[in-house]
Amino acid sequence: MSRRVEQGEATRVTLVDAAIALFTADGFANTSTTEIVRRADVTRGALYHHFADKEELFRAAYEAIEEDIFERCRAAGRGREGVAALKAGIGAYLDACLEPPVRRILLTEGPLVLGWERSLHFDDPYCARRLLRASVAALAPGPPEPLTHLLFGALLQGGIVIADAPGRRTEIGVAMDGLVDSLFEK
Q: What are the chain's domains?
């Protein structure tokens, strides 16, 4: 990788990190591109070189958080099989829902800024739904999409509850484990 490409990627990462911090603290509507540029210590031209607008930068922040959660869920399931792997990944997701960037960007503002229909697709490379789909495909007969949508809906709602009331993390985790057991344990 050339030095210029490395610098460009570093600038992009710096902008996304600054955006995550500001969107978490102030929300999408109350965060200006001027604040993002100042926080990242880059020029406005650098911002618009990497992102067409604030919404595209928000999408990149959203996807960075998604990627982090994906990797944590995958790591939690490593070394486990079947239902145990699925439960470990779900637990990692629910734990992530306690974190302010996940609560604000992914669960609260993401559907508003990016649109709800984005939540219905499985094609994002780092979407936790892809991990769910793989688990469902391995554990249940038939096409995995319908059950994956239903399980993801329960998981998303559980995350929203945790985002609103962090003290409910344990009860949501117990309920999700019970749901998984009822669906897949024979």
A: 3-184 (1.10.357.10)
